[in-house]
Amino acid sequence: MILLKVRNLSGEWISAPPVPGTFVCNIGDMLKIYSNGLYESTLHRVINNSPKYRVSVVYFYETNFDSAVEPLDTIRTRKNGTKKFEKAIYGEHLVSKVLTNFVDV
């Protein structure tokens, strides 16, 4: 069995069971900033408890390395103008994430 798990706000890994007729779209950090937190960037993992070989096809859609990312005006208007995130430079954010997300074993 293959299990998708997501980390909730309490830091616990919980199962995200499949829902027939749907697909999962994991939101990244930049969409979280663009949406001013309307969409959450959730940590996730997949556990393969099956003896079968598994292939996962992942697609990343990324902005330009030097793009400035900040909450969109239309979203801020819907949230009474409150800006939850400061401007981020995509490439700087990406390098920081890569350098801190992988652990040497």
From TrEMBL:
Residues 8-62 form the Isopenicillin N synthase-like Fe(2+) 2OG dioxygenase domain. This is Isopenicillin N synthase-like Fe(2+) 2OG dioxygenase domain-containing protein. It comes from Arachis hypogaea (Peanut). The lineage of its organism: Eukaryota, Viridiplantae, Streptophyta, Embryophyta, Tracheophyta.
